[in-house]
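Sequence in, structure out.
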Amino acid sequence: MEEMAAAIGAKADEQELHQKLQQIQAAFMKHYTEQNGTFKVNQEVYGDVTGYVEYSKESGFHGHTQTAYANAIYMGLLPPDILEAAGKNLSGLLIQNDRKLATGFLGVKPLLPALSSTGHSKLAYHLLLSKEYPSWGFEVVNGATSIWERWNSYIKGERF
């Protein structure tokens, strides 16, 4: 909206929308990030997140996920000074996962643009061109003609 206001020369609207964006970014950072910029779950609000997400007593849920970073970067929820660190966190999570995605529907759309916009285009291309499970290429080499609902909808030799 800020960009559209600028494009039509509505300076007052542009300034107001820029201020609103800064307020949203500051609130997001306060609510969802640690001091070092990594994402967290606000324990005061959500407790141990049981019931909100798939929860495991062993791993818990901490907010530091591929999906969280991809969406925050893609939607412009982070102030400019945090983008580089968020991109490094996102790429680090992918590298820890053997350069494989670990998102569902909510994180897959923003993943590649978020990587590219934070300087990790090489990793984005790797994901796009990969034929290993889980990936879009894996679906193609296994006969998909459209994107599957789940990454493991079909694996040769396995029955679900």
